Amino acid sequence: MPEMxxxxxIKRSLQDRLVxxxxxxxxxxxxxxIKWPTADRFQAITTGKKITSLTRRxxxxxxxxxxxxxxxxxxxxxxxxxYSSANTQQDRFSRIKFYLDNGDMMQYADSRTLGTLYxxxxxxxxxxxxxxxMGPEPLSEDFTLNYxxxxxxxxxxNIKALLLNQRFIGGLGNIYVDESLAIAGIHPERKADSVxxxxxxxxxxxxxxxxxxGIEHGGTTFRDYRDGNGHSGSHQFHLRVYGRxxxxxxxxxxxxxxxEVAGRGTHYCPNCQR
DNA sequence: ACAGGAACCTGATAGC
DNA sequence: TGCTATCAGGTTCCTG
Length: 274
Fold this sequence. Notes:
By secondary structure, the chain is α+β, with helices and mostly antiparallel strands. The chain is 27% helix and 24% strand. The chain has two domains: 4-132, N-terminal domain of MutM-like DNA repair proteins, CATH 3.20.190; 145-268, Helicase, Ruva Protein, domain 3. The chain has helices at 4-18, 39-46, 129-132, 145-154, 159-164, 174-184, 197-216; strands at residues 23-28, 34-36, 51-57, 60-65, 69-74, 79-85, 94-100, 104-110, 116-121, 257-261, 264-268. A hairpin with a 2-residue loop joins strand 10 (257-261) and strand 11 (264-268). It starts with a helix and ends in a 6-residue tail after the last strand. 41% of the residues are buried. The mean pLDDT is 97. The structure holds a DNA duplex.
C-alpha cells in the first residue's frame, strides 16, 4: 500500500512518540508475519527493550533498539502502524501489538497479511535482501541525474518496470511511477534505453517533485493508507493520471487510459505521453 | 536480461 | 439478495 512518501509520513508521525519508550509486551496474533527469526524469538528479544531511533530506508521502517538490535517492518500492500492508548479498541485487522511503558501501544494492522517483520542485530541486516540491495532514493545525494541517465541507457526493458525496481531506485511504487512518467511526458511502455537526453532531465526532476509533493501532502490515501495517528493524506487530490481512467487529462483533455505494464495497472495520457 | 505469470493473502466492489 | 469475477500503494521466485 504505501510508497516512500507514505512510509516517510508514518515515520514522522511515530518518531517522537516512540523514541525513548520501552517495549513492555509484544502480542503476536499472526506469527507467520515474522520472517526473522521465529515469532517466539522475535517476542523474546524485543520485549523489555528501549526504542532508541526510528528511521526509514525506501519503504522499510527500522526501529532501533538498545543493544544494537533493530526491528524492521515492511508494510507491503495493506500494512499499517497505529499508535494509541493501550485500551483503545483494536483495529479490525490488528496482527501484532507492542505495549509501551507509558500505557500506550503501537499495533501492526494488515488486512491482506502480506507485510513482513524482522528483529535482528544491526550487523545482520544483510539478511534482508530487499533492504541491503536497495538503490538510491529520490531526493537523496546518491540519486543523481547521471545515475538515472546511465541506468536507463543500460536497460533494454520498458521504463516502468525499471522505475519500479527497488534495486534501481528505492522507494518508488505504482502510483508515483505513473505520476513521474506523466509529468515527464514519457509513455510507460517505452524502452528505457530509448529515452532521450531531454526526457531524462524531465524525468529526473519529475521523480523528485512527485516524491517531495507526496510527502508535503502527507501521502496518498487511495484506500486505506493512514499515518501513525490514523490520519489520511491528501496527495490523492493532486494526482494527474493514477486512478483517473477515462477522466480528461488535466493538460489536454484526452481521456486517461489504463493498461497493464509490468503486471501493474498503469495510467497514462495517450496524447501527452509518447 | 527481460517478460510474464504465479505465489503470498484478504477484502471491497462491480457486474450479473 | 447473493454469487462470481476482478482488482488492489509490493516483492520474490520460477519458467521460457
